[in-house]
Hints:
The structure holds two protein chains of two kinds.
Chain A: H1 8-12, H2 22-36, H3 46-67, H4 69-79, H5 93-111, H6 115-142, H7 146-173
Chain B: E1 22-27, E2 31-38, E3 41-44, E4 54-55, E5 57-60, E6 66-68, H1 70-74, E7 82-84, E8 107-109, E9 115-117, H2 126-145, E10 151-156, H3 162-174, E11 179-184, H4 185-197, E12 201-208, E13 213-221, E14 224-233, H5 238-253, H6 259-275, E15 281-287, E16 293-299, H7 300-306, H8 308-325, E17 334-338, H9 345-355, H10 368-380, E18 390-392, E19 399-402, E20 408-412, E21 420-426, E22 436-442, E23 452-459, E24 472-478, E25 484-490, E26 496-500, H11 509-557, H12 560-578, H13 582-612
Parallel strand pairs in B: 1-10, 10-11, 12-17, 14-18
Antiparallel strand pairs in B: 1-2, 2-3, 2-4, 5-6, 5-7, 8-9, 12-13, 13-14, 15-16, 19-20, 19-22, 21-24, 22-23, 24-25, 25-26
Amino acid sequence: xxxxxxxxxxxxxxxxxxxxxxxxxxxxxxxxxxxxxxxxxxxxxxxxxxxxxxxxxxxxxxxxxxxxxxxxxxxxxxxxxxxxxxxxxxxxxxxxxxxxxxxxxxxxxxxxxxxxxxxxxxxxxxxxxxxxxxxxxxxxxxxxxxxxxxxxxxxxxxxxxxxxxxxxxxxxxx
Amino acid sequence: xxxxxxxxxxxxxxxxxxxxxxxxxxxxxxxxxxxxxxxxxxxxxxxxxxxxxxxxxxxxxxxxxxxxxxxxxxxxxxxxxxxxxxxxxxxxxxxxxxxxxxxxxxxxxxxxxxxxxxxxxxxxxxxxxxxxxxxxxxxxxxxxxxxxxxxxxxxxxxxxxxxxxxxxxxxxxxxxxxxxxxxxxxxxxxxxxxxxxxxxxxxxxxxxxxxxxxxxxxxxxxxxxxxxxxxxxxxxxxxxxxxxxxxxxxxxxxxxxxxxxxxxxxxxxxxxxxxxxxxxxxxxxxxxxxxxxxxxxxxxxxxxxxxxxxxxxxxxxxxxxxxxxxxxxxxxxxxxxxxxxxxxxxxxxxxxxxxxxxxxxxxxxxxxxxxxxxxxxxxxxxxxxxxxxxxxxxxxxxxxxxxxxxxxxxxxxxxxxxxxxxxxxxxxxxxxxxxxxxxxxxxxxxxxxxxxxxxxxxxxxxxxxxxxxxxxxxxxxxxxxxxxxxxxxxxxxxxxxxxxxxxxxxxxxxxxxxxxxxxxxxxxxxxxxxxxxxxxxxxxxxxxxxxxxxxxxxxxxxxxxxxxxxxxxxxxxxxxxxxxxxxxxxxxxxxxxxxxxxxxxxxxxxxxxxxxxxxxxxxxxx
Lengths: 174, 622
């Protein structure tokens, strides 16, 4: 029993591609919310207000999924019938090696409480994230190579974890 | 479910709009306010003494009645029944009390670890005590606006969890207030500022109240206020600065004080702190009760030194909120200060240094939250005066569910925009498992035990399948107030369980209904007692007047039978006054009235004739 995947791109009437005009998406999101938000229906009856909550929640959910590159690419692949978590070959060994290296550096920076090293690492993670996002545009939109796309999304997920850990380390020192 | 009707943006509603009385209420830790929209502008409502701030202090007097505000705050007679900063206990359990520090109240443990304080009226929950404050504000609003309230927007710290929000809403219901919305305090402040200035951009709201600190990042654009991130510390506020000053004084003077004397010293410290916003140095003087007066001089610089770590502590959530919003300080267009404690010069200096720009201070930091709430209340009541703006708020703390090993699976991360509906699939752990127990928690920690427990419920009737085969979908819904409900359904059979999340230390709907019924019953008792008292006064007045009239004119105007009948009626009325049966008094009084009315008419005629004939009239009419 597989429920049909809701198409978040269709909610805002934007093309189902990974590359996306963030400003246009935001403009539409705000315009949609301005119309359906429960506060705009505060004088409606109970049914109308319930419907407004459901509709506003649906728009929030769609926007959240399109805004974030990982959620957006996962959603785009799901619409194409590809499940990122179960599909395809394992993450390449060289990426795993690089990952382990990053984790070790992060641990070292945390142990020595080296703020500059941590900041440099975090900058490096963000640069790598940019690189992966650009690669995703090529793979998913231009080449339509979903298998390669899945690999890149997984790498983005690893990277997100690293960025979160770097942030948590910075917070520990606050 | 009906289809949502969407109005063209800007199109005016055709129906004539009846103005509904709506207010914004800032239910604060140290003081509370109520504001409304008047002639298109937000203004705070004042009490008879012209004061805007109602101290959030409730004293329960020996007769059980509540004394709220300045009187309660300044009373020194019964510290154990004078509740200050009650907001700290909203939605909290007895297990949380350890962190609250020493206090003069007696706690009676309610069912399920709920806090109840011992008072002359019996055990009272923080919700009931807060309701007393809200009742006073409601009365103030209804007196000022001249009619019953349609509803109110009540503000809460952005960092309040579901239990604290539910408790606040329950207190309003107890006070007979329809809650239009629970609004985050910093968001309310941004609304007041943003609309006042008509400016677009990113605002940081730095809210240092009496007992809590919040920092929120908001963006105003296309007429939409969007909360980007919020962070805070629920155990950091102006009170900590008072305590720091009081403790420094004790160290300087080598004094040891009783709890009552210490709270007096705290009040002195608060006054000194407030004075230091205006002057460079003040004398902190205290009479310790041993006949000696202790004095220490404290300078602004020394006070800043003593509290530097407290100020720094506010910057931790500030950094976190900026990180969550994905912004750096340069991208913040304006910093708004909220809360009386934000007046301290060392706080203003630290904020200005951190953001690299002086904070905005045009609106009174004590009033700005209530003003913003009033603006939102006006919109929600449907009195929108052409303002075309919308507020998009976020959930402050992540929501999750406990999984194997006591770990939390986050379903809704913090700072997700409200309202939210999100589903997550779970499966069974054992072959043939037919029930599943779900534990909903709120917080950022990985272990469920470290998060706040919101609700536990069971889903039964799952078809017995191999482990991992059942599909249980858990649907989390969070409404625009930030209140949570959770339902679960097994997908292959449609077995359902639904709970509206009831906070572990909150009141059940049954509790609320009972308390409302009780207060209503008390109100009826009170009304009945007042009517009875008034009847008795009336009846006694009639008896006196009848006797006097009989003495003066009885012999001249009445025959013996009439006099006997009247005396009997007087006797019956007197007898009825001994009891408390309002009906009986009313009947006896009517009987006497029936006899005295013609007598009064005759005496009137007699009096007029006497006056015409030049005689002096001594008394006319019964």
